């Protein structure tokens, strides 16, 4: 009995790392790209109904109105000369001799910068009024060189972020650079030796407690091309600079004076299993400046992906207190990398700058909260993209929801609370399986934008109708956006604003929470009993559809005898055989989850020489048995 309990407990714990529910979203407003896009970049302003999609030779502006989407295309072709030069290069990849939009960022309220590869000679344009290209005095589209703003190839990893009118770009070329490459502030970059063979992933603004303490973080992988068999070929890193950095006065004049970097590990310092390659990252604020959580997707050498969470308080503390790698002397009181205005009396001295010039890496390794991943994905999928949201539940408690895109075009909706995770659902909105290449979340309008190279769509963050019209199915979903409305007797969206209207809503988000539905499970209408008559020599399967992949399913005959079932991904099927002899009786399939018991289906099996008309009977050629498929009444 103890071994059975341990088995069920192990199965339940493992189930928490797979999606609880799986939905195919047929009503999502999906827009398809006719020929596919090699590089799909998304940009969305919070509160707007527009989505900017960068592709090949054009910028698409999508406007969403309820379930409809309208598209406007802004053609941005590669220059004829640049395209010709690209095609004439020895060994040129002809498909890359086009203009792939790789950067879309808002500079200010009236201007958006758009940069493309331009057949190997990057170029940037400007949108005014959010839809039209700015023009020069001759009436032509205003353009500038994008050499330091965008990658030259659609396959080159890069990251960009606009902060207060300045564009910060990280480019993975022969010489990897992190730079402030456009805007009113002084243009700065990293020294060549600071960042070697980097593949940049993304960038984020981390606000400080005061404006002059704002930091810009870059996340990237450092490639070790000379790694041996026992060495890690890739190491994840994060680098940061201060927004107020204006370069040095006599040393590092055109370079960052605040750049520091650290190694980022998804795993434990004492456990050999680590996830070293960063796929994507997002920083989610806590609602006040100076705090937040970093969520990252990491992959192992075998392709398995994991999600790790890091306290930004601890990250910033490490940059403020850690020793510098390779520097053995005592650090000065004014530490290298401190954020201070250029004109401040405490601006770094030449001696301080000489330290950071030669020692830009901190010794402290950044490990995740709990020194372990939040979870390791236990399916054949791998994660490619992540965005996050902070939402108030029915009790006005702040909850974190992660949306993770997979390499097969699916989205996992994940509740993260207290270091524990539940994959609420797996959403399948697309017609074609392709890696999720872009995601944007709008907490103001309550929408998630998702793109692959073939399709783009918008999904509601609160899709409470998926959880059916019963209290316990709504509650078991553990979706903080949704709660059971006892007055309206339906699963409804909870207001994002703190108020009293949702106080009556029923939710149960924490592990081992009490039954809040007050016996509503007994009120669920059971499916009609299916009566089955078969020949004693027949071999039949009794299907039990999986309602939740986190539930424990059981077949019971006549209320007492348990029968095993075979899990096949969609059903917990009862197969009669030597260990489960077929006999007359009432067979019920039940599902148990978090203390709730649901009867999924029931069959009254009678042995007879004739089969009832409701059965579809197939005789297997050369076999001595019948396969009986039960048709639902």
From TrEMBL:
Coiled-coil positions: none
KW Disulfide bond (keyword) present: yes
Coarse class of the protein's main subcellular location: membrane
Transmembrane regions listed in the UniProt entry: 615-632
Source organism, top-level taxon: Eukaryota
One GO term describing the cellular component: plasma membrane
InterPro entries: Ig-like_fold, Plexin_repeat, PSI, Semap_dom, Semap_dom_sf, Semaphorin, WD40/YVTN_repeat-like_dom_sf
GO biological processes: axon guidance; neural crest cell migration; positive regulation of cell migration; semaphorin-plexin signaling pathway
Alphabetical list of Pfam families matching this protein: PSI, Sema
GO-annotated molecular function: chemorepellent activity; semaphorin receptor binding
Domain Sema: 10-461
Presence of keyword Lipid biosynthesis: no
Annotated Gene3D superfamilies: Immunoglobulins (2.60.40.10), ligand-binding face of the semaphorins, domain 2 (3.30.1680.10), YVTN repeat-like/Quinoprotein amine dehydrogenase (2.130.10.10)
Family recorded in the similarity comment: Belongs to the semaphorin family.
Record's protein name: Sema domain-containing protein
Protein's organism: Mauremys mutica
